[in-house]
Amino acid sequence: MSPRLTHALLREWAVEHGFGQRGSVPPDGLLRPRQVHGACVELVGESGWEEPPEADAVVSTLPGRPVGVVTADCVPVLAASRCGSAVAAIHAGWRGLAHGVVRRGLDALRAAAPAGAELRAVMGPHIGPCCYEIDAPVGEALYRRFGTKLSAALRPSRPGHHWLDLGRLVRHEIESAELDPECIGSLPASCTRCDAARFHSYRRDGVRAGRLVHYICAHADGGLARPLDTSCGSS
Ligand SMILES: [Zn+2]
Predict the structure, then answer these.
(1) At the top level of CATH, which class does the domain 8-126+182-221 belong to?
(2) What is the mean pLDDT of residues 46-54?
């Protein structure tokens, strides 16, 4: 069993979370949507779900209940409001990004969080610019959302193709949701396609590829009731 990967930005707030590796075991009771590479955000209510809804972002304020997404090259984003009273898990591939899934997920997280609460967001393992080649139609779809900012994430490859830095676009979207740069994190560079020992990759393994499971859990001790200026470190 491989340990899940965690990030200091969320550990400092004692937010239970994990980015999956090959062989990591998902937590019991995990709620995750049926992902469709869209931009729908699902809010988890008191009773959870009877049927998983179609969505690519989940926002929850349900204490102690993990919510998550799966990926195999796309970018997973786990985010929380201060002290973890509200959390979000987002699945961002090029389609979802082009439709604004990251921004919509973070806007929904902000709406679910206490007014004015600081947000933090962390990007997990995903395909790197070393391995993610896109063609012109994909570039055009992304250009419609990112405009001239897209070019900084592209490097020419074969004629009509480019290498895309998907993580850079996700970071741009997180910044557009008005998170401070020091509130945005990512795991150390880890390309899912290059690192076969640790990660599943659709680009490498095709339809046989497994999925990495990523999750985050709203704080079990009722962060909503706490004043925002209370320290909520792991001590
Ligand atoms: Zn790579």
Answers:
(1) alpha beta
(2) 87
